[in-house]
Design brief:
The protein is built from nine helices and no strands. With 140 residues, the chain is mainly α. The protein has one domain: Globin-like (Orthogonal Bundle), CATH 1.10.490.
Length: 140
């Protein structure tokens, strides 16, 4: 997990704490939105998943602010947003600004692709199309 965190620090410019909190938010989102057997593959491939999710869940911010972040993201992606507003709300709850979350998410997806078994991220993106939109933005 430390190589994943280091890679994300290098790609995003975020400090270690921000990367860990962002990963906790992303993993929590995946846990809530994927079938248990698919999330179980993520959990089995990465150490400290439960710990990072628990750390994320113990934090908190105003839901009013978070809903505004979600509304903004939904407006940016339109009908292709899928569950992205919910994910950006979680990233905001983790302490990332909208700009930081926008840089973090595609980098995190790309890094997970390197750290998870072949094809797993593709199956996740099939189930959560909004993630594909965020990843496509990173590849462009």
């Amino acid at each position: 997990m430390s190589d994943l965190i280091s890679a994300l620090q290098g790609r995003t410019g975020l400090d270690e704490e921000a990367v860990i909190k962002g990963l906790g938010a992303l993993l929590n989102f995946l846990k809530e939105n994927l079938p248990p057997e698919l999330f179980g593959q993520v959990e089995g491939a990465l150490p400290r998943v439960r710990e990072m999710i628990a750390d994320f869940q113990s934090g908190g911010q105003s839901t009013r602010v978070l809903s505004k972040v979600g509304d903004l993201v939904g407006g940016l992606f339109g009908g292709k947003a899928g569950q992205l507003p919910e994910l950006f709300e979680m990233l905001s709850k983790s302490g990332l600004s909208l700009d930081q979350a926008g840089a973090f998410l595609p980098a995190a997806i790309e890094s997970l692709k390197r750290h998870l078994p072949d094809g797993l991220v593709d199956r996740i993106v099939e189930r959560l199309p909004g993630l594909g939109e965020a990843f496509a933005g990173a590849e462009a």
